[in-house]
């Protein structure tokens, strides 16, 4: 059974999938940082110093009565809240990831189309006497001057 599992785990598809998952997780971390640390601060600044991660609606106050200055304070107090600011951050993260994956797939598809393009029609033929390349419509070889049959 161990030998069978080893064969399964070492197949190319499984190893490739594992590498893809690891790179995907790392990419997700980068995108989260991009959204939270680069994209959202300027957007929040344009909207009047709004920190999207702190946008929430309290449904029920916690042990300490509100108002709460931040989501962290509300959660520490045990308040029940709808965290729509975090949802906005996650939606933007998803859009960035989806666009990046789209661009990668688009590039791969272009490469596949370039590989699958049919070979162009030949424009030359070989002289039967000297074996040099000559135009298809030639009636005499430009290299050995032999007459060619049409």
TrEMBL record:
A cellular component annotation (GO) from this entry: plasma membrane
Q: How does it sit in the membrane?
A: Multi-pass membrane protein
Give the molecular function GO annotations.
Answer: mechanosensitive monoatomic ion channel activity
Which InterPro entries does the entry mention?
Answer: Mechanosensitive_channel_CS, MS_channel, MSC/AndL, MscL_channel
Q: What is its main location?
A: membrane
Pfam family for this entry, one: MscL
Gene3D superfamilies from the UniProt entry: Large-conductance mechanosensitive channel, MscL, domain 1 (1.10.1200.120)
Annotated compartments: Cell membrane
Q: Which domain of life is it from?
A: Bacteria
Q: Which UniProt keywords apply?
A: Cell membrane, Ion channel, Ion transport, Membrane, Transmembrane, Transmembrane helix, Transport
Membrane-spanning parts: 12-35, 87-105
Give the signal sequence positions. Answer: none
Record's HAMAP family? MscL
Subunit organization: Homopentamer.
PANTHER family noted in UniProt? LARGE-CONDUCTANCE MECHANOSENSITIVE CHANNEL, MECHANOSENSITIVE CHANNEL MSCL
Its family remark reads:
Belongs to the MscL family.
Job of this protein: Channel that opens in response to stretch forces in the membrane lipid bilayer. May participate in the regulation of osmotic pressure changes within the cell.
Q: What is this protein called?
A: Large-conductance mechanosensitive channel
**Organism field:** candidate division GN15 bacterium
């Amino acid at each position: 059974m161990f030998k069978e599992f080893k064969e399964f785990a070492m197949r190319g598809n499984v190893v490739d999938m594992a590498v893809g998952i690891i790179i995907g997780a790392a990419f997700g971390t980068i995108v989260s940082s991009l959204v939270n640390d680069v994209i959202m601060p300027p957007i929040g600044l344009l909207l009047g110093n709004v920190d999207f991660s702190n946008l929430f609606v309290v449904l029920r106050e916690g042990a300490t009565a509100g108002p709460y200055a931040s989501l962290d304070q509300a959660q520490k107090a045990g308040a029940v809240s709808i965290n729509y600011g975090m949802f906005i951050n996650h939606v933007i993260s998803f859009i960035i990831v989806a666009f990046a994956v789209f661009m990668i797939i688009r590039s791969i598809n272009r490469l596949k189309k370039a590989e699958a393009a049919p070979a162009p029609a030949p424009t030359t033929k070989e002289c039967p006497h000297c074996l040099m390349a000559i135009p298809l419509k030639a009636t005499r070889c430009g290299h050995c001057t032999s007459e060619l049959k049409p």
